[in-house]
TrEMBL record:
Cross-referenced Gene3D superfamilies: 1.10.287.130, 3.40.50.2300, 6.10.340.10, Histidine kinase-like ATPase, C-terminal domain, PAS domain
Modified-residue entries (4-aspartylphosphate), positions: 1012
A GO molecular-function annotation: ATP binding
Protein's membrane topology: Multi-pass membrane protein
Highest rank taxon of the organism: Bacteria
Listed SMART domains: HATPase_c (SM00387), HisKA (SM00388), PAS (SM00091), REC (SM00448)
Protein name, UniProt field: histidine kinase
NCBIfam families: sensory_box
Cellular localisation: Cell membrane
Species of the source: Thioflexithrix psekupsensis
Domain PAC, first and last residues per copy: 511-563, 627-681
Domain HAMP: 377-439
Domain PAS: 437-507, 564-612
Amino acid sequence: MKKHAHLWTHKYFFKISLRKVLIIAFILQLLVILSLVNILSFRYGQQAVLSVTERLREEITARVTQNLQTYLNIPVALNQIHSNAIESQLLNPYELKIWRDFLWKQIKYHDSISFTVFGNERGDFISVGAKDEKGNAITGVNISRLNGEYDLYRYRTDKNGRLTDLVSVNTHFDPRTRPWYKAAVEAGKPTWSDIFQRTDDPNLVLSATRPIYDSHHTLQGVLTTSFRLSALSEFLETLDMPEGGLVYIIEDTHKLVANSIREPIYRIAHDGVSSLRRHTEQSEHKLIQISGHHLQNQIKKNGALAQFWNSTFEFGQQEYLLQVTPFQLEKKINWLIVVVLPKKAFMSPIYESTRDTIMLSLVATFIAMISAWLMARWISRPLRQLQQRVHWLMALDWEKSTLPIQLKTPAFFNSKMEEVDDLAHSFNEMAKKLQHSFDTVQAVYNNAACGIMLFNLAGQIRQMNDLGCELFGYQSDEMNQVNLFHLMPTIDRGYHQQKLANLLNNKTDNYRSEQRFNRKSGELFWLEIWVARIVLNGVNELTFMAVLLDVNDRKRMLQALNENRQRLQSIINHLPLILYHVDSNGIFTLLEGRGLNILDMNPSDIVGQSIVAIYKDNPEILRNLEKSLKGDFVRYELALNEVVFEVQQFPVHNEEGQTTSMIGVALDITERRQAEQVLQRAHAQAEQARKEAEQANHAKSAFLANMSHELRTPLNSILGYAQLLIQANQLNEHQKESLRIIMRSGAHLLTLINDVLDISKIEAGKLELFPSDFYLPEFLKEIVDLFRLRATQKGLTFGYEQIPTHHQLEGNKGFPIIVHADEKRLRQILLNLLSNAVKFTEKGHVSLKIIYRDNHLRFDIEDTGCGIPTDQLEKIFLPFQQIGSQNYVEGTGLGLSITRRLVEAMGGELHVNSMIGVGSIFWFEVQLAALSYTVKTPPTTELLTIKGYHPLMTSNHHPKTYRILIVDDISENRLLLVNLLKPLGFELKEAKNGFETLLIAKNWRPDAILMDLKLPKIDGLNITRRLRKHPRFQDTIIIALTADLFEYNRENSLEAGCNLFLTKPVEHQQLLDGLQQTLQLEWDYAPSSEAEKNAEKKITPHPLEQQQKIDALLRDFDLSTHIEQLAHFCRAGRISQITQYVRDLQNQQPELQPFTEVILTHSRSFNIAKIQLFLQTCQKE
């Protein structure tokens, strides 16, 4: 009985007909859709309204913020204008008479400004108030009384700013007690005052204040510009607000600043004059009171607002939207912008639309119910017949049966519903294809020549074909209880689990591996396994398919190969190294070599073991193993048991290029490393000795530099004043000769200093040559004249002979006129040799013979002195060595040592022959490039007396009178330059340190600066760099003066931006030539012969070969742009920019080297005139 009741309940109570399902589903869907439409319509409408209101509030807030910035920027800008006028000395903080017109013009165009004032520390005060409707303004002036106090007089002005009527007088008015004045003094910088009441009316104002300080940071007064807060309210009234909405601004203390409803933000106190600020809760407008109270509660609850904040509140049974935005400006301005909008003003249309939508939905539901019932009745009838065929197909056993009959379509289908008829035919075709597919898959699965297995992520085998079961020795029904990972050795399980994880993460589509497995009997055999992830319908868990191939025979063949390889073990064991092989799984498959005996290792204990397990505590081995198995060649050193091995590991690749294993070779290099350590210690000791020698050399160089500087500093004054005095016309010949003796003595001392510095450079290997073009006959004439005079004074005869070549040179025979060499060093060589000859000769003669042959000059210096012993000929070239009595011989003993090094640096060799009692002859030969063989009149060397100068060009950049700033920390040096330059008409100023230099240069704007490089606190190079960074001083001429003769000073000066580099003691003519080149001026000379005035300037041509190269460049390349740019730098005297430009050009176009080398040669000597002459020659060609 119970059984029949259950069947009846299941049949009639729990089941429902298709007709009812279609009707109910259609009705439910329609109801759900209509409900969702209504709900979403209402919600989206509400969200749209809220979005609109939020954008409206943001727009209102943005407009308010923007205008607040505008209103607040105007007072600050006016204060800045007034401050600039004071700094520009247009306004005097203690002369307020001219302030009134200036302030009236400033306030004339700013309606929001209440007043602008200035009060000074003396109590003076001037103010100009805002204009009224008629264009008049109120001007206040403090007038001093006899007792030192001030009275404030307020006048009305007309439209033109003129005073008309006296409005009021405030006695005892002191601006220094006003809030705006105190705020500025307390802040010490531009700031804002608190909101305060004006003295002449109850309106509230806000002031931007700015203290004014003089150059000594002494307070002079305070500028203040104020604007009316009522101007903010007037602006807020102009905002387009919905009905019932408002905007107001409050301070963080909730005191009102402005509002959009014309409500005063203050109330008059009982005295009838003072204004009292209103709090939001004191407002007469209820909405401001309620919103302010709500805002205050939120701030108490959540803390101060750091950004804008939205909220809602109710008032009068109505919901309001509230938005608060902080507005901050410095520390004084900390306001809140509050926007209040009624929500009702936006939601009314949404409520009406929702009611109409609900009514239409009810009507549509009724119509849909009738339509659904008719449609369901029509559709369900033919589907019942199709249902019977489906039940029959579901009951069919696919493995044992085929489709015996064809499904037939009832006549009702054909006549009424085409879709259902097509469904029946498709159903029949589907059944056939399903049967065919199942048969095909089953045939492949059962007859495959490999094992096929399905398993899950945990390794549980779900299905396996017959061949797979045969490989493992299991029956088909036993495989479902077997786990794949349990069939593997333990060490291999992690590898496959990682590979399966890669398949899950889509890092690979499949993977292949040759793996050991255990049969049911426990036998270990090899399989090649291919694994891929598959997706099965109706199966919820992850499924993998594996294809299994038996490779046990192949492995046995490999084992046979290994046996053959073992036959070579005796040979490998005798090699002085360790050879090993590791497969892709990290297993040692080979370990041989005589080196194993050193480590006391047995290969049989290691081969077959995992290298990871053996060397798990040695990360270096594992790291390099990983690199090798990834395909990289690895070479490293490894220390094991105090034995050092050099290890090389080679990856082994298969045909596909995959790394399958690696071979390693370890060589014992312990003895070699020990020898290297000994060698390294020796190198370290040598390096330490070298560093100590360098440190000593550096210390010596620093000492010599300081010594040179200290000696040259007084010599600068001695020789400088001697040069000045010798040009005086009132001196007699005896006095002039005395000055010449001073100059010669100073020059001798300077030579001794230079010798010491030169020997230091030679020992440090830093001796450099700086060849230039010079006039050889005049050069030799100066030397010959000098030593002919010395020889005559000592009672000796001096002979001079020059022998030219006798073959044709450029079509002319003769001695070279202009040569290219280091003039300074050649002069130093000849002076040293001739000085020694005169010094050591008591009677007889001294001679100089010069022989020119094939661009080589040979100099022979012969004397009839005491002679040099043969065994001492090499000793005389050592530093600080002298031959003879110390009381008889003067000098330092450095001359010959320096001379020999200089000759060698110039490519020659110094020789000597000597005989005791007969004399000595020194000779050397150097190569000098001859530039010209034409005999020319030598340039004049006579110094003309300069009385003044005139610029070559007169303009804003070239004034008639040049300003020169002299920078030196020693007053005597500055006075010397003043005495030299002031008589010539220059306008001079002095500075003794870097701070004074920067200050004077900024205020005075000199045309040239004579810069001593060694200054206290800030040296001359840093001052030059600072000046060059400023646009004002890009074209200012800076000439470096220093007593440090080292070449790096010249290079550093050039890099820092100096136009010229001169050493102390300064040669006056050299300094004047430098000023003439850089400032582009001509000297005015005292009256003299016409020949002296029109003396021809020395012109230095280029070597013939070099000139030919330059001519070729000018034909092949267009250099006009580069020539124009370089000419511009020359006119501006920018030697550093010339050098940088030419070096960049040389790097970019190496083929222009002949052109660039000429300019670089002249730039090293700061000779702008020669560069200009060379560029003019290039332009003509």
